[in-house]
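Bench log, entry 3. Co-assembly request; chain sequences pasted below exactly as received.
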Amino acid sequence: DAKTTQPNSMESNEEEPVHLPCNHSTISGTDYIHWYRQLPSQGPEYVIHGLTSNVNNRMASLAIAEDRKSSTLILHRATLRDAAVYYCILRGAGGTSYGKLTFGQGTILTVHP
Amino acid sequence: ETGVTQTPRHLVMGMTNKKSLKCEQHLGHNAMYWYKQSAKKPLELMFVYSLEERVENNSVPSRFSPECPNSSHLFLHLHTLQPEDSALYLCASSPWTGANQPQHFGDGTRLSIL
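Structure output for the full assembly:
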């Protein structure tokens, strides 16, 4: 799977929007962009994924650049519960890595009251 | 709240003990996974099961032995572990193993080897 680059940490205030960037300049045409987050003392939690078009769900929005070399996870109104490590992961549709999620270091999001 | 339940949440064992970790999912998924998360390291995939058949073994030592008796249950049998095996062991499931399938994780078993 291709590599992703994320900032080590970001900070936000409660009730404000948060834009978490991810660069994936070597993405291939069949790679899906997935986002997961991990709260302290919990397993990772699926947030959202997409291929080419922007995606929205109840947790967040995913904005994908036209050339697909970067993407942004958008939390519309941060809450204290959103403080977590956020992982941007590419998953290729080809090959034999069945369902493999390759986690990097992620972005530590701190939310201030 | 999660549809993937792991037991026990914490386990302390000696290097000569034999124990098992259990994972159960109530999501109707057909694929299940074991991951290892060591301190300060990214998650590492260990095993993948699809329709109760092991489809990936990610170079895991034989002292870890997985078992998937049905699509809802996954076990990880442990024997003669080493101190470096102390870690958080996470189970996950997904509808299928495809690249567009989200994985749902349990909260893990924190394993400590004495």
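The mean pLDDT of chain B is 92. The CA atoms of residues 18 and 79 of chain B lie 5 Å apart.
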